[in-house]
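Reopening this ticket.

The earlier resolution said the output was attached, but the attachment link was broken on my side. Pasting everything inline this time so it's all in one place.
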Amino acid sequence: SLRRCRFAVLGKQWYQRRVRGSQTRVPLAEMSVEHAHKRCRTLSNTKTRAEYCDTEELSEDAFDEGRENCPPSEHIRQMCTPTANRTDIHHTEWLASPFWRQSLSNDHVNRWENSADEIVLKIFSYLKFEDLFRCALVCRHWRTLSYDRLLWNQLNLAHRSIPLDKLLTLLALGTRFLSLSCGEVKTRSATSSPKRKETLHLEYADFGRCNVSPPQLTRVIECAPNLLKLNLESIPISGPLLRATAQCTHLQVLNLAMCQHVNPTQLIAVTRNCTKLQELNLAWCNISEKTFNRLFPVKCESMRKLNISGGRSTVSCETLRLLSSSLPNLRVIDISDCIRVNRYGIAHLAANCPLLEELSCSRVYELSIMDVLSWAKKMQHLRYFNSFPSIMNARFIDFLKKMKEKYPHVQLNKNETSFVARPCSTLHLSKGVAHLWEKQIRS
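Inline output:
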């Protein structure tokens, strides 16, 4: 299929070079029927069958036998292709018959025009982006198929560099899944990239560790009000960017891990406006304790997973009490490296979050081993417990043995790294594949 696609794109130029490069005329089998009739009428010195047989030293019976056994199109090519020793030999009585007319017309059948659009789209789906743009230059029909939404539904630009206006042009083709992790969005002048007002169909977007400025990212999010999952890990955050994110009322997953300069007012607006938010990652964001205490409304029943690790001096037991009282349906929470949390904070989680399934509290030095063993009895739905100390000693190994004996249904240290709201749920990545939560996009 790829060879046919390449021949269809370059076939016209190749055919012109072939005809112009040769000194002879086009063979009869490669002409239309009308053109062949016209050419035969203009030849005055056409050889008869007897003259041809005398010239080639053949008998008339052998000539008729070869004519009957040879396929029609191949027979015409053999008889009518000019050579250095003889001129073209044409027979108007052969061309007048319906048999030869059908054979001539079959030589010019365009297989691509007769193929269904679904088959062509399936072939185009295996091409690279550059090849799709070349196919769009062939004809209007191929241009329509090359820009079909099914081909641009997934866009993997990880580790690539692209200008902002080109990115918006590609997203306007109907992209729903975008991966731009570890990439770069180039800056151009304001005159070369006018502001776009059309609404994008973007739903899943990964901008993790991307070299992009906040104004550029704000323009993309403003055009995508239907975002469902958004990853902004390790990106400078501005107030307008969070304000545009707050307008995505259907947002379900938001990752702000290791983001700097987070505006507390706009962050609270995001949690209040996005009523369907289920996963939130605020690890190592340097958010104040006052912001944590006012982060969620009185009741936020949609929240399922929360990561507030890295709040060394900002997350306290009072913070956990306010958060747990506002999140009654919380399933997963990560409070690693929160050195101010003690056994009272775990008590608030056990009392206010009865559906808690996974608890991560690595390097929480104020929390003793006996506190965890005592409060684990009240967490009836607890299935995973992650606790990685800074130094692995004999005391911690004894703690793991006691946990396995008393709570065999609890799996210990499943994940060393938290994957809350992150697009990839594993550390073992496949080469050439971008993970967008439950979706995998190939390069």
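Reporter confirms the inline version is readable. The longest strand covers residues 433-436. The radius of gyration is 36 Å.
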